[in-house]
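Human: Here is a favour to ask of a fellow structure person. Comparing notes only helps if you start from a blank page. Give me a protein, with the fold worked out from its sequence. Please set it down just below, with no commentary around it:

Assistant:
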Amino acid sequence: MTNQIIADSIFTHRPGECAELDPFIIIEDRSDNSGFVSEIRIHPNPASDVIYLQLPDWVETVEIHSLDGRLWKQLLTPDGGNYSMSISDIPSGIYTIRTQGAKRMLTQQISITR
């Protein structure tokens, strides 16, 4: 299987401000990571103040990134296990949660709502 790269953009307009066109690229991973994804549980989704993570022992770090690539939070998880992460200081929106270990990295989306 191969990865598919999709280039697109987001048109943003807020009343009283100039319109913006923000380009972004999505890389769709077509490899079979279904076994790894099922090992990682992140809930609730959507979330508002706290997310709970159940991680296998291969996960060493968890990062929350906005769609523009900005790193909002990082959590070190050297032995996997159960964790909670406060997200009360992150604005509403769609984010990616990157779980990473020495040989694997997975990303999942989460919605933060207020």
